[in-house]
Amino acid sequence: MSTEKAPILPASNFIRAIIDKDLAEHKFAQKRWAGSPGDARHQAQGPVDFAKIRTRFPPEPNGYLHIGHAKSIFLNFGLARDYEGVCHLRFDDTNPEKESQEYVDSISDMVAWLGFGWDNPTPNGQHEHNLYYASDYFDVMYQAAEALIQHGHAYVDAQTAEEMRINRGTLTEPGVASPYRDRSIEENLTLFRAMRDGKHADGSMVLRAKIDMASPNINMRDPAIYRIRRAHHHNTGDKWCIYPMYTFAHPIEDALEQITHSICTLEFEDQRPFYDWLMARLVEAGLLANPVPYQYEFARLNLTYVVLSKRKLIQLVEEKHVTGWDDPRLPTLAGARRRGYTPAGFKLFTDRIGVSKADSWIDYSILEDCMREVLNDSAPRKIGVLDPVKLIIDNYPEDQAEDCFAPNHPQHPEMGKRVVKLSKTLWIEREDFMETPSKGYFRLFPGNTVRLRYGYVVKCLGCDKDDAGNVIAVHCEYLPDTKSGTPGADSIKVKGNIHWVSAAHAYSADIRMYDRLFVAEHPGSGERDFLDDINPNSVTTITAQLELSAQTAQPGEHFQFERHGYFVADLKDSLVDKPVFNRTVTLKDTWQK
Ligand code: ATP
Ligand code: MG
């Protein structure tokens, strides 16, 4: 019988099946790359268990992470966690113009918020610090490019971008070879070095892989691998005026970090032949050793009622359709955190939607349901009156107040109870009174009795109105022997049960009632501009009356306001003892068609 510890794994998927097979075959039981910067680090930090899987999450620091990235984070970091492997956080920063430290910081922050880290223990009791920058490998990438040239696998092309585009051919026609394709190795080396040394203008030439201009896969028709761009880089400064193309850089990054499973979204499927081609050439050139990493593609998350393209998110922020990258309506992770969405909710969501190879749409309500489910279990209850009107208990003494006891969580008695004060004047919801009740209305109307939740049964007497006929106060009398918690009192039958807050013991709070940012299932579908699908009522700020204990809520604390939904004390706008709340999600789905 095997004594090996069998990890408990969540629902399987095709990637797990691949990993299971690779591990069973001991595919990674040897070191694969000598002389890489990664290797030097490993030597300094002690032996590394190469039998483990290594994945990576490789964001480009050119924007904030969004909900789609959460799927990739839970997949990559989640696999590493479940298989006791390692996942690297790698900034794929090969495109200097759009990248910045602000993005680097926010990305690290969000990965950590979701519960993942990049300091991994090693067998000798030390730590591997698995945070990487693609730009740290620029020297090796340059070396790899020269190696390709030296083996006759790359050439410097001086066609214009337009000529290259035309000569690339189409899906039905092969490409046309560049007149520069057959330059000698010497000439290519000299030119490439001159490119590096700043002797040529931006865009005047590129280094291309020499593969097959007639390939049915257009990505294999001599893709560009290095370009000239005089741009300041957030990490390497002005050291380089040539930068590797993403498709060339990425496989090298994976190989240097000894990634075993390079997991990406389906649009890179057509790039896989180039990934494999490059690996094979660099093994031939002696720069890499087998086994090299392999790329596996999965379907990206497509979510209704949001936009997940960085370009559109940037537009929403820059044109001020929202208040910033962390606007609680945005599908960025920074926005979701402020909205009150939780890492546990995202975990449940990513488990529930699974990982597959088929593109599909996930309805936004599934994400909301997951947030509800997690918060229903974990969020303490509070009482909040969101549309307040006064309820005056005519037969209650003017300056008296008494304690009522409300459970912090109906399903978790271990979370205890708290005191809420009851007094003569209370706040109740405006909709909990009707002067002339409609059919089936069981709440307050003249002559009817209801229970004030956790308090007394009261009988409604009538209301006061202003000159315009608006109800300004409701009157009632309480039945003294009916207080909740006293023997026999809770078995008194009334149909209505309403919540309330004592006016003298209330915290008057600003609450942002967030709704979806877009009204259309597919914002901007067809000819439409996605901006035209913005929900004009995506936020309404109200002043609510909350039980006093809500006043000491810490930024980021979650609550269920009974009968209303889940709310969070805002991380940014809350002041000490003056929290502002955001509605995370309603109690029930209000968007069902
Ligand atoms: P772009 O706007 O260029 O498409 P991106 O969202 O792909 O940007 P990256 O920084 O390249 O941004 O993404 C980092 C990782 O997150 C990649 O591995 C990518 O495959 C993954 N990812 C991005 N969007 C999604 C999504 N909607 N679902 C799942 N994974 C995603
Ligand atoms: Mg991308």
Notes on the structure:
The protein is of the alpha/beta class. The protein folds into four domains: 14-137 and 246-304, HUPs (Rossmann fold), CATH 3.40.50.620; 146-244, Glutamyl-tRNA Synthetase, Domain 3 (Glutamyl-tRNA Synthetase, domain 3); 305-354 and 362-377 and 506-593, Beta Barrel (Ribosomal Protein L25, Chain P), CATH 2.40.240.10; 384-499, Ribosomal Protein L25, Chain P (Beta Barrel). Helices cover 25% and strands 23% of the residues. The protein contains 13 helices and 29 strands. It has a seven-stranded mixed beta sheet with strand order 14-27-28-29-25-26-15, covered by helices on one side. A hairpin with a 5-residue loop joins strand 21 (457-465) and strand 22 (471-478). The model is unreliable at 1-9, 32-38 and 40-48 (pLDDT under 50). Bound molecules: adenosine-5'-triphosphate and magnesium ion. Adenosine-5'-triphosphate binds next to helix 3 and strand 10.
What topology emerges from the helices and strands here?
Layout: H1 14-24, H2 37-45, E1 54-57, H3 67-82, E2 86-91, H4 101-113, E3 119-121, E4 127-129, E5 131-133, H5 138-150, E6 154-157, H6 161-167, H7 185-196, E7 206-209, E8 224-228, E9 242-244, H8 246-256, E10 261-265, H9 272-284, E11 294-298, E12 302-303, H10 310-318, H11 333-339, H12 343-353, E13 361-362, H13 364-378, E14 381-382, E15 384-385, E16 388-393, E17 401-407, E18 417-423, E19 425-429, E20 449-452, E21 457-465, E22 471-478, E23 496-498, E24 501-502, E25 506-514, E26 539-547, E27 558-561, E28 565-569, E29 581-586
Parallel strand pairs: 1-2, 2-5, 10-11, 12-13, 14-27, 16-22, 20-23, 25-29
Antiparallel strand pairs: 3-4, 6-7, 7-8, 8-9, 15-26, 16-19, 17-18, 19-24, 20-21, 21-22, 25-26, 27-28, 28-29
